[in-house]
Design goal:
It holds the Pfam family CcmH. Belongs to the CcmH/CycL/Ccl2/NrfF family. Possible subunit of a heme lyase. It comes from Celeribacter arenosi. The chain is built from six helices and no strands. The N and C termini lie far apart (about 90 Å). It has two domains: about 90 residues, Helicase, Ruva Protein, domain 3; about 50 residues. The model has no long low-confidence stretch (mean pLDDT about 80). By secondary structure, the chain is mainly α. α2 crosses α3 and α3 crosses α4.
Length: about 150
Amino acid sequence: MKPFVLALAMLIATPLYAVQPDEVLADPAMEARARDISEGLRCLVCRNENIDESNATLARDLRLLVRERLLAGDSDTQAVDYIVDRYGEYVLLKPTATGANKLLWIAGPAMLLAALGIGFAFVRRRESAPETTALSDEERARLSDILDD
């Protein structure tokens, strides 16, 4: 009986959100918009957690700010732009691939290609290196004399 109850509990388990009841908007459509926006915003304290899932005070402030901007009549894009202007692009969980971020998006693959090119050149150069020959009898005798001294 216990395994069945545990399995049932795991099946009906849903993700927990940190949104407090006093934060929820009365209009369900506006609340849905706020939740959609919040899913794309990073908690600046928790790093890789969106502000809906974070219990940090700053995340609560950001959730309230999103709802405040929506109530003020901002579109979803305007609300996100307002928060990005205020906190920087780091607040976005999925940063844009524009401006200075292009360098970051391109750097990883570019460095991989450069490393592959350097490795390929190194291997090619080693393959084309002249083969060494064994010492002649005269060279062995001279080496023996040098080492005996």
